[in-house]
Write a structure and sequence with these properties.
This protein is of the alpha/beta class. The protein is 41% helix and 14% strand. The chain has 13 helices and 8 strands. S-adenosyl-L-homocysteine binds next to loops.
Length: 329
């Protein structure tokens, strides 16, 4: 068990060499050498929310908005499946244009196309009944980053939303039998080292199936345009601490980390405890408009495989279900 002081000590230590070694050992023991490749389709950049850091926020009039049709979404998913990937992540802004029925149809169609594939939804906050309907339609996993455990900070940077609601949805997703992904931003304006320690304590307590951890990155058309990005070294230390605190959690080397360090970000993440890379399957014509932050670096199959080789690991096309669901040996 890590204490708050243990975590703060690691965040302040002169170097992260020993920490990286411990995280790497935990990763090897719990996840092995394989890096799961997952495919993501960002099917709509329309969003009803006002998150102060995010380029998709509804107040951003400078973003060219798009919505993929159900046929386009199925097509993009089937391309990922043809590449051999067995997890399709469907992500979007919080976009009510896609009704419960539309989304359930899309989920069922992808499952019919590939019964052995897993579907992850990452479509934000919806009426609670929806999560049940999506689960019944065949969705396996849900990624809803809590963004920050600091409720005051959360409420300040998410006008109109509430930390309490976000956390209660995350609990509900777990009750419904989803494999649940959470996650947080590193280096948010106003975030302290104590807050970051709180993130690791939360992961230690919740033991999520997945956690997305990456730097905050400024986007020019948001209120946070002029703020500093999160630091690479801090993100890496937090990934390592996450691996140690919650060893059976899938940790992607995130696109945001790769954007901070385009040449080595993915490989560095893998060396600091990560075991997943998400390959982008959003059609080229839309991809640049999914502008959560500027100069986004996405992985394609080739760059993902290159990073995995660079880190001395092997790519895996297994489904990569929750390590919590694996029977103990
Ligand atoms: N609407 C969905 C999906 C959000 S987009 C939802 O609310 O869950 C996916 C993730 O992008 C968010 O969870 C957030 O953590 C991340 N993101 C958005 N803007 C960002 C920024 N400026 N820097 C880093 N990550 C950002």
């Amino acid at each position: 068990m890590l204490s708050k002081n243990d975590i703060l000590d690691e965040l302040r230590a002169p170097d992260s060499h020993a920490l990286r070694g411990r995280a790497d050992a935990a990763r090897r023991e719990h996840c092995g050498e394989g890096v799961f490749l997952r495919g993501i389709v960002e099917f709509s950049n329309c969003c009803a929310r006002s998150c102060r850091y995010c380029g998709l926020r509804r107040e951003n009039r400078r973003l060219k908005r798009y919505r993929m049709s159900p046929a386009e979404i199925r097509q993009a998913a089937s391309t990922l499946l043809r590449w051999g990937l067995r997890t399709v992540i469907l992500q979007s802004g919080d976009d009510a244009h896609y009704t419960t029925a539309m989304l359930c149809d899309i989920i069922r169609d992808i499952k019919t196309d590939a019964p052995g594939a897993a579907i992850t939804l990452s479509i934000g906050e919806r009426p609670l009944e929806d999560y049940e309907a999506f689960r019944e339609a065949g969705a396996d996993r849900y990624l809803l980053k809590h963004e920050t455990v600091n409720a005051t900070l959360y409420d300040r940077i998410h006008p109109g939303q509430s930390h309490a609601v976000r956390m209660s949805i995350i609990e509900r997703l777990r009750e419904l039998g989803y494999q649940v992904g959470v996650g947080f931003l590193v280096g948010l304006p106003g975030q302290t080292a104590e807050d970051l320690a709180g993130e690791i304590l939360f992961l230690q307590d919740f033991q999520p199936d997945m956690a997305g951890i990456g730097p905050f990155l400024p986007q020019a058309d948001t209120p946070f345009a002029d703020q500093q990005a999160g630091e690479r070294e801090t993100v890496l230390r937090l990934l390592a601490l996450a691996r140690i605190a919650s060893p059976g959690t899938h940790l992607p080397a995130t696109t945001a980390l790769a954007t901070l360090d385009p040449s080595e970000g993915f490989a560095a993440g893998l060396r600091f405890g990560c075991n997943v890379i998400m390959v982008n399957g959003t059609p080229d014509s839309y991809r640049a408009s999914y502008r959560l932050y500027d100069k986004r670096v996405c992985a394609d199959l080739e760059s993902a495989r290159r990073a995995i080789r660079l880190a001395g690991r092997t790519a895996s096309l297994e489904r990569g279900d929750s390590l919590r669901l694996q029977p103990a040996e």
